[in-house]
Amino acid sequence: MSSLIQIAPSKKSVVPAPDVERAYRYCQETTRVHAKSFYFCARFLPPEKRRAIYAVYALCRHVDDEVDEADVRDEDGARAAIERWRNELQSVYRNEASSSPSPVLVAWRDMLQRYPIAEELPLELMRGVLMDTYQKRYATWDELRVYCYRVASIVGLMSTEIFGYREAFTLKYAEALGLAMQLTNILRDIGEDLALNRIYLPQDDLAKFDVSEDMLARGEVTGNFRELMKFEIERARSFYREAEKGIPLLDRDTRFTVLLAARLYARILDEIERADFNVFTRRAHLTLFAKVRAAPRVWREARKL
Q1: Do the domains at 14-119 and 135-305 have one common CATH topology?
Q2: Are 136 and 193 in contact (CB under 8 A)?
Q3: 72-76, 80-84, 89-93, 273-277: lowest mean pLDDT where?
């Protein structure tokens, strides 16, 4: 099901097939290097859907890197870089030729012929990424949720157009999975984000559990901090539970990939708990062996959906 518009064919949009294939291989390699769990799960998709997903991830990665890799004093430069991506992407949607197309955009131009992702979705993603240039704290969960929606739920909404689905309300479950995964990222990366002067944990949650920013800066795993983390982990798990309700609504050939991605990412929360909530000096992750070991059981579950 899709109510999104198709891009009309145009001579301007013709790219030699070898260039298109190289563009997709570039997106695949970007995914393989930077998103190991995502890459592992995507390999179970049908080939056409798989490379389309690589294109989506590569765009998200490049846009995010424009902010994360910018010098903290060069926020204007980061915003200018995102603006260039926005203009180039809009040219793709207008079917205009580009003088120096990124391989990511070459892949997007081809991918949009098959999976018409609404232009507003990647543009909303860019708005979310830009929030990191001016917002370093979030007062409430509702405020943080806007950020999580833009940088993660949007990815889920774009991906769902590739996965295929039957009912429009399926998209609300894609939104929930994005919230779950981004909150998982936030909890895993508390220490790394502090180094960038970013605290994503809602300020009212910090106050509720009497955890100060100074305590975070010192990397103190106190009883209060553990209770705060338990609270946030349960919030993330509630979104994972909600998201799984939508997996049976996806095309059958994608259900295993999505269920596996959700289950593997949720296990990062288990790893945080196993480390006694120390997210300051170690980064919770799953080994390749753990991913491979989990796959058969998840596959059996997905077959029953």
Answers
A1: yes
A2: no
A3: 72-76
pLDDT in tens, 132-170: 999 999 999 999 999 999 999 999 999 999 999 989 999
Instruction: List CB contacts of 152: < 8 A, sequence separation 6 or more.
Output: 178, 179, 181, 182, 185
Please tell me the distance from the alpha carbon of residue 192 to that of residue 184, in angstroms, as a whole number.
14
Amino acid at 113: Q
Angle at 140 between CA 271 and CA 232, to 5 degrees: 15
Other CB atoms within a 10 A radius of the CB of residue 224 amount to: 16
Task: Give the Cα separation of 221 and 219 in Å (integer).
Answer: 6
170 close to 246: Cβ distance less than 8 angstroms: yes
Domain extents in the chain? 14-119, 135-305
Written as one letter, the residue type at 81 is A
- Residue 182: name the closest of 123, 255, 268, 289 by CA: 268
Q: Are 62 and 104 in contact (CB under 8 A)?
A: yes
Rounded Cα–Cα distance for residues 153 and 9 (Å): 29
Nearest one of 97, 30, 87, 79 to 59, comparing CA atoms: 30
CATH topology assigned to domain 135-305: Farnesyl Diphosphate Synthase (1.10.600)
> Global pTM?
0.90
The length of the chain, given as a count of residues:
305
How far apart are the C-alpha atoms of 84 and 278, rounded to whole Å?
A: 39
**Do 101 and 88 contact (CB within 8 A), yes or no?**
yes
Is 14-119 a CATH 2.40.50.320 domain? Answer: no
